[in-house]
């Protein structure tokens, strides 16, 4: 059934599917790990049981999300050897060490302290347990650091040379490879996005339970903390996204042209196209609703600044405009919706109605998944905008794939889709079930009950001095 399909297209679809699933979980666990550290710090400082209850509630959810993130990441990485073996061979001397650093630092740090964080509060003491929680939170950030460094190098390669075998190798200093031109901007934008994603999930949870009982003290605290985070972080994220866009314009102008829908150059100032239908065949934007010269103002801070269009880029080096145009608008639109939710919560807080405005709570519930949609839309914008390259202007996607037949790739794609929706669907259902249950007063520690071997039921206790028959 796949004989007539391009195997590279199937390989790209498989990687896009698995990375989209995977990216959901780290974008949640990065922010949730830091939130857990804050909750435990507040509990240690105030001694209030409220914070401990909320901590233990979210710890259960973190454990499930973290496990699904690890599993989905392992499966995703295998594709570098199966579907993208040429890419692995050519970029391995650069990408390989960066991925190894991620394992040696972040993964070992998380693995070393995760067990203490999940099960050790009654065993190691409060302060050591808090240190373990902080180490897990730090580990999630370090993991993002190395993964984004590797991916950013593919976007803006630096500090490399090409050897006689056609492989990319480090030249000069690893610092140039790690801190490539787009890395700081993409790291800030991604990590802030993870914090914002977590705040929306946490806020939706608090809002859901406030709709059922506005006097619930746990729901009140959860919703209040989440709305503070959304109100403070959303405008910072907008600024971070703007700086990344300016950096992208400097290093990957074709990506920005496609994001903006600029098929043609604008020598006297480019319009900001809010909506329209990209017409790839005619190389124009149909039914465009635009603000004159606003794109030049945003990107160049000058209404009359010239902006080049895709007519200056060879046809075989242009990214797919329709996907980029709409994924970018989904990301930006949701970003401003988050900003609006944060402002709304500030107004409610100022009027003393944060826990009473039902429409605010309904909006909080509706915005719960918005962070996940936004980060995936942003990831699509970043990765599709790099096409037709895997390493920007140095290695094409068509030159990176393994020599596989389409039926082989298609069969594995179908298997991935089935297994992922079954396994991760059940995991997501369980997380939603935990969220719907809510925080219980005196929330027990994770794994507090005795662990028994499957199939073995403890017998009745023997009386003192009793004989066995």
TrEMBL record:
Its main location: membrane. The chain crosses the membrane at residues 20-45, 57-78, 98-121, 128-148, 187-210, 222-240, 323-347, 359-380, 404-432. It is a multi-pass membrane protein. Residues 447-469 are annotated as: Disordered. It is found in: Cell inner membrane; Cell membrane. InterPro entries: Cyt-d_ubiquinol_oxidase_su_1. Belongs to the cytochrome ubiquinol oxidase subunit 1 family. This is Cytochrome ubiquinol oxidase subunit I. The lineage of its organism: Bacteria, Pseudomonadati, Pseudomonadota, Alphaproteobacteria, Sphingomonadales.
């Amino acid at each position: 059934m796949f004989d007539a399909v391009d195997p590279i297209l199937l390989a790209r679809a498989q990687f896009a599917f698995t990375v989209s699933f995977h990216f959901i979980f780290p974008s949640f666990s990065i922010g949730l790990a830091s939130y857990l550290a804050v909750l435990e710090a507040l509990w240690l400082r105030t001694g209030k049981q409220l914070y401990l209850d909320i901590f233990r509630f979210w710890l259960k959810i973190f454990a499930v999300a973290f496990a699904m993130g690890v599993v989905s990441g392992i499966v995703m990485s295998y594709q570098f050897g199966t579907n993208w073996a040429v890419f692995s061979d050519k970029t391995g001397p650069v990408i390989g060490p960066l991925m190894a650093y991620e394992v040696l630092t972040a993964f070992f740090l998380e693995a070393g302290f995760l067990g203490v964080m999940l099960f050790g509060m009654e065993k190691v003491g409060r302060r050591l347990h808090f240190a373990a929680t902080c180490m897990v939170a730090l580990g999630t950030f370090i993991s993002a650091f190395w993964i984004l460094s590797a991916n950013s190098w593919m976007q803006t390669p630096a500090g490399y040379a090409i050897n006689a075998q056609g492989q990319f190798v480090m030249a000069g200093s690893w610092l140039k490879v790690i801190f490539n031109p787009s890395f700081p901007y993409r790291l800030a934008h991604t990590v802030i996005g993870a914090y914002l994603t977590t705040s929306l999930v946490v806020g939706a949870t608090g809002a859901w339970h406030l709709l059922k009982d506005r006097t619930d003290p746990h729901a009140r605290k959860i919703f209040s903390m989440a709305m503070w985070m959304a109100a403070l972080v959303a405008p910072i994220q907008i600024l971070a996204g703007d700086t990344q866009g300016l950096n992208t314009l400097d290093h990957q102008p074709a990506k920005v042209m496609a994001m903006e829908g600029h098929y043609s150059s604008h020598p006297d100032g480019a319009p900001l196209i809010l909506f329209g239908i990209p017409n790839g065949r005619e190389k124009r934007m149909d039914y465009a609703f635009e603000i004159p010269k606003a794109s030049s103002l945003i990107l160049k801070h000058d209404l009359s600044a010239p902006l080049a269009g895709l007519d200056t880029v060879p046809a075989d080096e242009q990214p797919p405009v329709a996907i980029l145009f709409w994924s970018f608008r989904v990301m930006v639109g949701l970003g401003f919706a988050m900003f609006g939710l944060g402002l709304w919560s500030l107004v409610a807080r100022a009027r003393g109605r944060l826990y009473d405005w039902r429409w605010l709570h309904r909006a909080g519930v509706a915005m719960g998944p918005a962070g996940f949609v936004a980060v995936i839309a942003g990831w699509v914008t970043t990765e599709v905008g790099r096409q037709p390259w895997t390493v920007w202007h140095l290695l094409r996607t068509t030159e990176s794939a393994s020599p596989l037949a389409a039926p082989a790739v298609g069969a594995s794609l179908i298997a991935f889709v089935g297994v992922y929706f079954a396994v991760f669907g059940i995991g997501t259902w369980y997380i939603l079930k935990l969220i719907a249950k809510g925080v219980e007063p005196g929330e027990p520690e994770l794994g507090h009950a005795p662990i028994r071997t499957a199939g073995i039921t403890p017998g009745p206790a023997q009386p003192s001095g009793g004989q066995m028959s």
